[in-house]
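Q: Joint fold for the lines below.
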Amino acid sequence: MPRRAFRIFVELEGMYRNIVEQLVLYAVNNGITKFTRLKAEKYRELRSLYPQLPSHYIYTACQDAAERAHSFLRLKKMGRARKAYPEVRSVSIWLDDHLWRAEGLTSISMATHRGRVRVSIELNKHFLRYVNRGWRLASEARVKLDRRERRLIFYLAFRKEVSEYRPKVYVTVDVNEDAEAVLIDGVVYLFETDLSRVTLGYYYRRKRIQERYDKVYGPGSRPARRVLRRLGNNERALKKEIRWKLATLIVRQAARRQAAIVLERLGKEPANHMIERIKNPQLRHRVFQAAFKGMQRAIEEKAREYGVPVIYVDPRNTSKVCPIHGAEIVYGKDRHGVCSKGGETWHRDVAACYNLLLRALGGDGGSAPSRVRALVAVDGGPVPLGPTAAHEPTPIARGAWARWRSLGATSKHKQMRMSV
Ligand SMILES: [Zn+2]
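A: Joint structure:
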């Protein structure tokens, strides 16, 4: 943008930031997390403080601040807030339909304290992809200033009407720290994600680099910060790619079968027994966020996009109880265990997937999985799920599934089909 026009937005951002800072402070002090209440109590005052600013900026700043206060107060309750007050570090200006409008595909007009300003825009590929797939632009938007390039970056939202179908079958997903077991058409696929390994690997690499740089440049030096930031960006990008690819794959399979996706209901804190061995609480939190929460969130979001219903079930003991006999499975050293009643062998993730299915069918996660027990041929033999070694999941390495478009590409794996 021309220097003069850009200055208007720098002023605008300054005012917006001040407003948000005041509002956040007020909201946190008074325990306010609702936009409506914050607006009711502060609108008049702020309006008179910034009479030159279009009034809708006060509305959007209230929304922005309420959201910040809400997440800060939640963190504080969990004991995870590091400071007494939230810091308003990076600001993107929230816009509503009064504050901006698209003028064709070439420019955007924005209301500012100096009147309306027209900004010419450059669309990216992503934008066009959404438009082509029938998404419509929503009225909410955010804008961020890029001072180095002297440009504005618009963050736009898209909307689409998607209707959920009534599920005919279920696809169950058991999320683990380094893999995801998915039960589709009676086959348990084990998609390796290596998410905890990625997290731990980057953590130790960062630590090593920090120590080395601190020795040479002193703690918190600029070169160290630059290297660490780049490493952090790489880590985020890699994890994001893993999550989105796998989520897309699973959700597409579910949509094709008109199935609902069954997920474990996760707790809020990383108390998950799978990662108890990680002693450092910060690291445990990070692994939990990436491997469990992040993966679930990616599936949820993709499911929304495709109109696939998601069902949550109680995750307790899903891998400890035999899906056929309801008896305890006794595990040895690896992920294999033996049913204490039937004597058959189970892979932990296969048992978990079937138990999730039972709970989804049972509705309440209760004790009567009779419907699936009726489906599973129990003939008293030692191997209940077919004569082959079919209690084994079909492991698929990340490098393999990341290249596919659909599960049909795996004829080799089809041979290991589980007969239910
Ligand atoms: Zn059993």
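Q: Anything notable?
A: The chain has a mean pLDDT of 84. The first strand starts at residue 93 and ends at 95.
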